Amino acid sequence: MNTFNKNQTWDAIVIGSGIGGLVTATQLAAKKAKVLVLERYTIPGGSGGSFQRKGYTFDVGASMIFGFGQDGYTNLLTRALADVDEYCETIPDPTQLEYHLPNGLHVDVDRNYESFIDKLIYLFPHETKGIKSFYKVCWQVFNCLDSMPLLSIEDPAYLAKVFFKAPLSCLGLARWLPVNVGDVARKYIKDPELLRFIDIECFCWSVMPANKTPMINAGMVFSDRHAGGINYPKGGVGIIAEKLVSGLRKHNGEIRYKARVTKILLEGNKTIGVQLANGEIIKSKYVVSNATRWDTFGGNESKDSLIDKDKTPRSEKNWRKRYTMSPSFLSLHLGINQKVIPQNFHCHHLILNDWNRMEDEQGVAFLSIPTLLDPSLAPEGKHIVHAFTPSSMSEWEGLNTSSYIAKKERDADHLINKLGQIIPDIKNAITHKEIGTPRSHRRFLGRFQGTYGPIPKKRLPGLLTMPFNSTKIKGLFCVGDSCFPGQGLNAVAFSGFACAHRIGAKLNKNSWDLPT
Fold first, then answer.
1. What is the pTM of this model?
2. What is the pLDDT of residue 1?
């Protein structure tokens, strides 16, 4: 392990070891930059981490993982690990998700594209042409993304090289940047229930309906699940972060745990380093914040922020006028008896009982059982159930200890009853239970109000309004789900690649050649 030198000036300090921060750090380390990651908690990964309890290995966040395929340019987790000589063994999931929807609508999204389309056509035969046309557009977007090594959209010289390599793909991608999914879906599809299905298809990963979800993101998700597929990392999602940390250290980078950054230090309008909660000052040429933008720049929403309120750029204030926080989650980590799970049960499920409640507090329930893919995550004869439902911090504030505990149990019971719709005997099969709330996400993940990223306050033109990695403060960059292209492990990995490319250019450490 590297010996930490308190007097060293680093090329870059990365605040937070979420996947976006770790990809930034490892990419810079692979370019031979001197990189330090500062993590407030005791394990890496943030919401992409794992934790152990009584023989169970639980994923902190979702276990539906994109980015682990082998071909093309969109498999960013595979590429990020390979760049620091690491590899994750993965287990292919034959089904992305099984939907349990109002009016008896039941759809499972098969890894095989033709099988999925055939199922939709069977359910909506009068929309055969519209279904094929809509998902064909998704493939067009995906093929543009997958045919070129797109890194930082902020680097004109790099974009010129990419355009020379794949001009048609660049033009095709530019066409879809200002477009939302709802615009495309309504062009081809008229059936209201099928349009609602596309809403929930978007909501399951963006926490937004189709009219607020960028077409670029949907094209990626709706196609990659059939191309690279959903692949679960053997040993749990936290293995990804652990492997990235290992790769960081192999390339002479460093990570410190229990190192909570309280302030980004400035001289004028330029970063010079950070200050920790214990008062320690660490100097660097560049600083990367993997915290949310609310935690980074604060403003009226946050009393504590890494940048003083009077130093917050106007661009960040304008951004907050367009975006708000997505809800956090009420989450359950359960150990259950294996026998209550039916034969041929899928790993991932979504339950919605009322279309009108899709965006409401605890309106949608998500369920994953990763031990169906990797039995080693639980003791013999047991399964893991990870269930979660959107919940806002406003529902949990102002409660005293007894009221908070009572609400946790009451809401957890309600969620368990909802899971009983598809696993009838689950309530009596629970052998281990942990309940997380937005307050838990705020405490352990250091995310403002427990949020999982920004969502538009109103309908916006696709991805054009999403901020990139650079900020108006010299030397300060942001990475993660508050940056282009948004939420999801593969998306934050993209932001990590892009951020490292921008800093690499400033350090004169980027290769001239495009990635292969």
1. 0.92
2. 44
